[in-house]
Amino acid sequence: MKRLASIAFAAAIALFLQGCAGWQSALDPKGPAASELAWLIWFFTGLCAVVWVLVMAALAVPLMMRSRERLEPLVLDAGADNRKLRVVMTAVGLTAVILVGLTLLSFFANRTLAAIGSDAALTIRVTGHQWWWEVRYEDATPSRILTTANEIHIPAGEPVRLLLTSTDVIHSFWVPSLSGKLDLIPGHMNVLDIKADKPGVYRGQCAEFCGAQHANMGTFIIAEPRAEFEAWWNDQLQPAAAPTSDEAKTGEDLFLKRPCVMCHKIGGTPAGGTVAPDLTHVASRQTLAAGTLTMSRGNLAAWIADPQGVKPGSHMPVVDLSGDELNAIVAYLEGLK
Amino acid sequence: MKPAAMLLLAILAVAACQREERDTRPQSALGSGEQPTPVTTLEPGGQRPSPTDNKAASFEANAFHLSEGKRLFGWFNCSGCHANGGGGMGPALMDEKWIYGSSMESIHATIRDGRPNGMPSFRDKIPDDQIWELAAFVRSLSGNAPSSAAPSRNDDMMVHPSENRMPDAATLGKSP
Questions:
Q1: A263 touching B, CB under 8 A?
Q2: What is the pLDDT of residue B50?
Q3: Which tens digit of pLDDT belongs to each residue from A174-185?
Q4: What is the chain B residue with the closest CA to A274?
Q5: Which of A28, A294, A315, B132: CA 20 to 30 A from B71?
Q6: Min Cα separation A121/chain B (Å)
């Protein structure tokens, strides 16, 4: 019976640890910074576990062995006292050595992390908002500066420098598969260097409680080969696709006439709001509302019809639209690839 | 005696849990308000009584709506003309002068329908509840909102103290 219980327990732990794999896990590193940190945490945990077991054993052994009474309790036993002193001094010495060793390991790991982005060729400015991420790709040519939202495309295998700041409250940028987390602070610029070893999609999450929809403030890092990344950048620099169908054309007119235009930007149209995500190529993203919904026509409609039902407290208001108006706007946005 | 006192203390402590209701999902989807606020006070036979709107009462002393109004005031660039309430191209909003009246309904009508000499109409551009929020915040700029509800912190450098430290409109900052 006992054996069965322990097997069930082991199975449960194994299932639980399954959750540590995947596109958002500090235990499944996909970049040099995350590997360094993962190695460090495993080493720390392992060493501390060994120390803990030794200490427990050292406690248990004397408790189990009943020491025999000394015949003369007051007689000095220099040999036994010396033995005890040696044991204690060895333990103290080992503790000091382990502490200094772990400190040095941590120090050198930090140096490795700091060296990752020393020659970063690409700089991305990430600004936290309640509750989405503004992403701006810096370039020496002003016409090539690109602003998008929530998805961060990077070239795989190259270090990328992220400049982190916020407009409202403190957020925290954390993509566990790639690096440790760093805060986004209003009025202050933090620098984080990341590098993805291989192409892939890695999920990030705001890691500092920032208000009602903190849990729904996700981001995606999409690492691509350099050529694909350049092609993506050039695509994104283009103005928005012109509406093709009549319905989409109506949708564009409605977008510009109704409250949408007060906050959102669509490149190539008069819409130029900067307080909400840039929608110039919104349909080319994988998710809506900072990783809350997958991109689809239905989800677009649901999000516009009732943003407060999807993300209660978010700053997108409920806009008074008829069913036809909603369909037209969705048809237009769906075409913004 | 002692348990009774404890009970009383517990009830008092629990009473502190009562806080302002925050309505994140107002009913603006039901259509914008069309209450007939007069755009002018000129009326044959004297002044027409101004109709009141129940939104006005529920928004004007609500801390959440006031702070949302403050955020929207910045987002929609009201400062472009009103300069954080100090006035520039448009009139100042933090003094005691109100060209079209200081009631929530009048300010709401100003934002919704516009006014002659420059104030544009935001009728289809801002959802009705957000117009009410803006109106509530504009009133708080001149000390017309209770200081317990008015926004308390400026996110940026401001030319005036935060709204809950503005002089009370009733006394204009002087001792009564």
A1: yes
A2: 56
A3: 999 998 899 999
A4: B75
A5: A294
A6: 33
Q: Which residues pair with A170 in a beta bridge?
A: none
Chain segment A91-107, per-residue pLDDT in tens: 999 999 999 999 999 99
H or E segment at B108?
helix B104-113
- CB-CB contact of A321 with A257 (8 Å): no
Which H, E and C letters describe B2-55, residue by residue?
Answer: HHHHHHHHHHHHHHCCCCCCCCCCCHHHHCCCCCCCCCCCCCCCCCCCCCCCHH
Chain A, chain B: beta-carbon pairs less than 8 Å apart: 47
User: Do A226 and A155 contact (CB within 8 A), yes or no?
Assistant: yes
Residues of chain B contacting residue A318, judged by C-beta atoms under 8 Å apart:
25-26, 28-29, 127, 129
Do residue B126 and residue A212 have CB atoms under 8 angstroms apart?
A: no
Judge whether A127 and A184 are in contact, CB under 8 Å.
yes
ipTM: 0.77
The answer to whether the beta carbons of residues A244 and A335 sit under 8 Å apart is yes
User: Is the model's pTM score more than 0.90?
Assistant: no
Provide residues of B within 8 Å CB-CB of chain A.
24-26, 28-32, 71, 75-76, 124-130, 155
- Residue B138's alpha-carbon distances to B79, B107, B112, B132, B133, in angstroms, are 12, 8, 14, 10, 9
CB pair distance less than 8 Å for A312 and B155: no
Sequence letter at residue B48: R
The pLDDT of residue A141 is 92
What is the rounded CA–CA span in Å between residue A332 and residue A242? 9
Render pLDDT for B116-125 as a digit per residue (tens, 0 to 9).
888 999 988 9
**Identity of the residue in A259, A263, A318 whose CB atom sits nearest the CB atom of B29:** A318
Q: What's the confidence (pLDDT) of residue B36?
A: 55
Residue segments in chain B with a per-residue pLDDT below the cut of 70: 1, 24-53, 172-176
Overall size of chain A counted in residues: 337
3-state secondary structure of B81: helix
A49, A51, A52, A53: CA torsion to nearest 10: 90
Contact yes or no for A177/A25 (Cβ under 8 A) = yes
Cα distance between residue A321 and residue A329, in whole Å:
10
Among B21, B23, B27, B28, the strongest candidate for a mutation testing the A interface, having the largest count of A CBs within 10 A, is B28
Structural tokens at position A126: 């990430």
pLDDT tens, position by position, A297-320: 999 999 999 898 899 888 998 888
Among the partner-chain residues A257, A312, A318, the one whose CB lies closest to the CB of B28 is A318
What tokens were used for B20?
């302002």
DSSP A72-89: STTS--HHHHHHHHHHHH
The percent of residues in chain A predicted with pLDDT above 90, rounded, is 61
